[in-house]
């Protein structure tokens, strides 16, 4: 029997299934997501989900997974999907009765990607004629919840038990407060959300068993827990699609040393070679200012500066900023490869006569993948822009595993996902 994954992306659902001992077949159009999946050994058909026929899967599909592209609905985009929502609802209603009006409705859509959220119903209607699938799991940004409720009403009429709602990934051990609209449906069991395993504050043990653990922080997920003020150990650079690193290779050791001691070296230790030679550069998204390297380091009465690190989710004025000892905000990446940056502020107790300038370092694909609960060695394909796009669009595998385990009769163990690098 087949588990079919529509809009499979780089393998968020697929990796969760692999952890649970099951393989799926993913349908995906993006070239680089397909290359990532291939490198990870995941079965993939590169195709446009809207064009691919259903008949090859009839009579053999036990589960259907769907995470339609979120760009049309996401806060990170123009959100034209909200304006197209009546057309998407109409497409779902028509497809549920076997009428294919997608071509006519697509002509009226402001964002052509909006109608992709109706594609799962085309598959579901065809499968229903064969008494399939046994279960369904779908995920999208919160604004799609009304559409999931429409799906739920149709599926209930077909004999499914269905639950829809908003889940916070942090409640399931993901180091990110990523809120998503979820649909869970089953022909054989009562559909319900998985019980949360984590909470904002740790809960004590009670008569009903152990309490939930505290939300996983970015520092824990990235393996920075050995120090009270961790810092990034590597730095990534570049503008759209990649580019040169903002620091010379020798600075990696400086950063590692600082992490190990919980301190940050004077700023002159982190100035790029080009700037040490007197070449200036713009100060934006992780670049340093043009201060001369010969300027004396800040005078301190104590040890080297202690720095407090936070993650800024994007370059917008209202961007979410979270301390390293908290979960990240929702990770998404726009047209720039590295809008998400680590920002360091000196601790006020340093006793310095002059406070150093705050530092910023762009997040790496490896770090972003870990914050989505992908393995540290996940084989992201493409340049930086292509890698970050895949990561931002993926469902966190740890959340996916919690959603899928009951349908597969599996028990998810706490050690099934290693978060730390």
Automatic annotation (TrEMBL):
SUPFAM superfamilies: S-adenosyl-L-methionine-dependent methyltransferases. It comes from the Bacteria. Its EC number is 2.1.1.37. Pfam families: DNA_methylase. Residues 254-263 have a biased composition (Basic and acidic residues). Keywords: Methyltransferase, Restriction system, S-adenosyl-L-methionine, Transferase. InterPro entries: C5-Methyltransferase, C5_MeTfrase, SAM-dependent_MTases_sf. One of its GO terms (molecular function) is methyltransferase activity. GO terms for biological process: methylation. This is DNA (cytosine-5-)-methyltransferase. The lineage of its organism: Bacteria, Bacillati, Actinomycetota, Actinomycetes, Kitasatosporales.
């Amino acid at each position: 029997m087949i588990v079919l994954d529509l809009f499979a992306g780089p393998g968020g659902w697929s990796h969760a299934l692999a952890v649970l001992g099951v393989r799926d077949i993913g349908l995906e159009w993006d070239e680089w997501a397909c290359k990532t999946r291939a490198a990870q050994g995941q079965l993939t058909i590169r195709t446009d989900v809207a064009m691919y026929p259903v008949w090859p899967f009839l009579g053999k599909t036990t589960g259907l997974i769907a995470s339609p592209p979120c760009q049309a609905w996401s806060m990170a985009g123009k959100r034209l999907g909200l304006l197209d929502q009546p057309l998407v609802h109409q497409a779902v209603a028509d497809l549920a009765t076997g009428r294919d009006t997608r071509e006519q409705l697509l002509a009226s859509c402001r964002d052509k990607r909006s109608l992709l959220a109706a594609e799962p119903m085309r598959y579901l209607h065809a499968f229903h004629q064969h008494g399939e699938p046994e279960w369904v799991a779908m995920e999208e940004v919160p604004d799609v919840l009304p559409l999931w409720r429409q799906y739920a009403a149709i599926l209930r009429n077909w004999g499914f038990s269905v639950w829809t709602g908003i889940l916070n990934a942090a409640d399931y051990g993901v180091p990110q407060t990523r809120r998503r609209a979820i649909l869970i449906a089953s022909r054989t069991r009562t559909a319900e959300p998985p019980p949360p395993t984590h909470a904002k504050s740790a809960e004590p043990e009670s008569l009903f068993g152990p309490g939930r653990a505290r939300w996983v922080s970015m520092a824990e997920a990235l393996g920075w827990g050995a120090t009270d003020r961790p810092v990034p150990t590597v730095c990534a650079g570049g503008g759209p699609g990649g580019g040169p690193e903002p620091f010379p290779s020798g600075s990696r050791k400086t950063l590692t040393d600082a992490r190990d001691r919980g301190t940050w070296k004077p700023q002159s230790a982190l100035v790029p070679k080009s700037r040490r030679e007197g070449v200036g550069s713009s100060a934006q998204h992780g670049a340093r200012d043009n201060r001369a390297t010969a300027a004396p380091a800040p005078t301190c009465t104590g040890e080297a500066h202690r720095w407090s690190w936070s993650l800024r989710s994007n370059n917008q004025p209202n961007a979410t900023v979270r301390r390293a000892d908290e979960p990240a905000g929702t990770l998404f990446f726009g047209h720039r490869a590295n809008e998400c940056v680590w920002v360091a502020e000196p601790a006020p107790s340093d006793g310095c006569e002059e406070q150093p300038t705050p530092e910023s370092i762009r997040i790496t694909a490896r770090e972003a993948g870990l914050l989505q609960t992908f393995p540290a060695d996940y084989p992201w394909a493409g340049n930086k822009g292509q890698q970050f796009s895949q990561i931002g669009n993926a469902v966190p595998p740890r959340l996916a595993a919690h959603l899928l385990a009951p349908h597969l009769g599996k028990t998810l163990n706490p050690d099934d996902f290693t978060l730390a690098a």
